[in-house]
Amino acid sequence: MADRYQQFTKSPIGRFVVPKLGLPSPTPLRRYTPGQPALDGPALVGAAPNGRLEKTLTSQLADAGIEVRTEAADGTKYGALVFDATGIKDPKDLRELHKFFHPVIRKVGTCGRVVVVGTPPELAGGRERIAQRALEGFTRSVGKELKRGATAQLVYVAEGAEDATESTLRFLLSAKSAFVDGQVIRVGTVPATGKTQVPANWEKPLEGKIALVTGASRGIGAAIAEVLARDGAHVVALDIPAQGGDLSQVANKIGGSALQLDITAADAPEKLATYLTERHGGVDVVVHNAGITRDKTLGNMTEGGWDAVLAVNLNSQLAVNDKLLAGKVLNEGGRIIGVSSIAGIAGNVGQTNYATTKAGVIGMVDDGAARLAEHGGTINAVAPGFIETKMTAAVPVVIREAGRRLASLAQGGLPVDVAETIAWYANPASAAVNGNVVRVCGQALIGA
Ligand SMILES: NC(=O)c1ccc[n+]([C@@H]2O[C@H](COP(=O)([O-])OP(=O)(O)OC[C@H]3O[C@@H](n4cnc5c(N)ncnc54)[C@H](O)[C@@H]3O)[C@@H](O)[C@H]2O)c1
C-alpha cells in the first residue's frame, strides 16, 4: 500500500509545510540493485587503542570495493563510519567513542551507515564487560539521532571469529539492510563447527543451494523466495492448496518449485522430508515464514483461534525442524530461519496468541543454536516491525500511521527488507552468525 504521507512530504507544498510544523519527513531509502556500489561515499574507519579488528575490517571493506579512509578530511560526506571498539576495556575508555564520532557524525551521507564493533559482554569480565555493554546505549542513541535514512548497528564479535565478520559487514553497509536500524548482532558467540565459506561470487552466494520457504505465495514469503532465487538458490515455495494459483506464479517467476502443503497437517513433516530428499537430496535453507493472525482480546478468544495460531506459527515449525534434523534432510551447514515479530517482543492488544508464538520463535532460536551448531548449521530469526503488506494495509488508519511514523526511519519497511536480512543469514559466509534475532523495523519505538 502506498505511503501517501511520505509522497506528500516530497510534494512542493509538503516540502514547505512539513518542516514548519515539525512533522516527520521520511527519506526514501536506498535499496539494493545488483551491481550497485556498496556505499555512496567512502568509509571512515577508526579504532580505540589496542582494538583487535581494525585491520580485518579495513581489508574486508576494501575487498567489498569500498574506499577506506583512516583520517577524516574536511568537506567529505561519508558513506559509513566504522569503529572498532574492541580496545575499550574499561568504562573510562568509552571517551574514545566521543573522540571518533563527535567530529564526523554530521558528515554521514544520506542512507549512510554507522557500525560499531565490540566484544560480546557476556564473554568478557569485570570492567570490560561493563564497558562493552555500554556500547548498546551509545549505538541505539546514534541510530535515533541520525537523519536522512542513515542507520546505526552494533556488532559483537567473539574472539577468534574476526575473519567470520565479512558477510555481516557487507550486509550492514549495503542497501540490503535499508530497514535494519539500531540492532545488536552477535557473531561467533555460539561455538561453530560449520565452516565460513566465502562465496566465489558475492552476487550469487546461494548457487547450488536448495531453499524451502513456507507461506511463499504472497507478501513477505514471496519476497523471500525471490531474493533467495536472485542469490542463486533453487527455491521450493510452499503454501496451502487454496493458494495454489498464486504459489505457481511465484515459483514460475523465479524458476523454483511449488509445493502445496498445509504445514500443520499431522503428516506434513514426513511429506516434506520425503519431497526434499527425493527431489533434491536434502535442503540447505529452511525459512519458516508461514504465519497467521486470529486477533481477539483474551476474554473473547476461542480455543480454536488460539490453537490455529499456535499450530501454524510455532508447533508446525518445531515438528518440521525435528524431522529434518533427525532424518539428516537438512544438509551439513544448513540454515533454519524463523520469522518472529515485534509483537513477540513487545506484546500487543488482541494478539496474546500471535505474540505467544512469535516470542516462541525467539525461544526456538535460543534452544536450537547449540543443536544446529553440532550439525555445522545455524538458526536465527528476523523480527519484522511495520512492513507494507496486505496484512498491514487492513490495519485501521490511525494505528497504521502510528506504526509507520513511530520509528527512527519514520516509515514502513518493504517485504524485500525482511527478505534481504534472511538472505544474509542464509549466506554460506554467515556460518558464525548463530542464535540472533534481528529486528527489521526501522528502529521502531515499540518494544525498543
Ligand atoms: N506484515 C507485517 O508487517 C509482519 C510483521 C511482523 C511479522 N510478520 C510475519 O511475517 C510472515 C509473513 O507475513 P505476511 O504479512 O506476508 O502474511 P501473509 O498472510 O500475506 O502470508 C502468509 C502466508 O502463509 C501461508 N500460510 C498460512 N497458513 C499456512 C499453512 N498452514 N501452511 C502453509 N502455508 C500457510 C498463507 O497462505 C500465506 O500465503 C508471518 O509469519 C507474519 O507473522 C509480518
Please describe what this structure looks like.
The protein has 448 residues and is α/β, with parallel strands linked by helices. The chain folds into two domains: 31-187, NAD(P)-binding Rossmann-like Domain (Rossmann fold); 210-440, NAD(P)-binding Rossmann-like Domain (Rossmann fold, 3-Layer(aba) Sandwich), CATH 3.40.50.720. It is 39% helix and 18% strand. The protein contains 15 helices and 13 strands. It has helices at 4-9, 12-21, 54-63, 95-101, 126-145, 166-173, 219-230, 244-254, 268-280, 303-326, 342-346, 352-374, 390-393, 397-405, 415-426; strands at residues 43-47, 68-69, 78-84, 108-118, 151-157, 183-187, 210-214, 234-239, 257-260, 283-288, 330-339, 378-384, 437-440. It has a seven-stranded parallel sheet with strand order 9-8-7-10-11-12-13, sandwiched between helices. A six-stranded parallel sheet has the order 2-1-3-4-5-6, with helices on both faces. Helix 10 (303-326) links the parallel strand 10 and strand 11 (330-339). Helix 10 (303-326) runs parallel beside helix 12. The radius of gyration is 22 Å and the shape is globular. The two termini are 25 Å apart. The model has no long low-confidence stretch (mean pLDDT 94). The structure holds nicotinamide-adenine-dinucleotide.
Write the layout of secondary structure elements.
Blueprint: H1 4-9, H2 12-21, E1 43-47, H3 54-63, E2 68-69, E3 78-84, H4 95-101, E4 108-118, H5 126-145, E5 151-157, H6 166-173, E6 183-187, E7 210-214, H7 219-230, E8 234-239, H8 244-254, E9 257-260, H9 268-280, E10 283-288, H10 303-326, E11 330-339, H11 342-346, H12 352-374, E12 378-384, H13 390-393, H14 397-405, H15 415-426, E13 437-440
Parallel strand pairs: 1-2, 1-3, 3-4, 4-5, 5-6, 7-8, 7-10, 8-9, 10-11, 11-12, 12-13
Helix pairs in contact: 7-8, 7-15, 9-10, 10-12
The protein binds nicotinamide-adenine-dinucleotide.
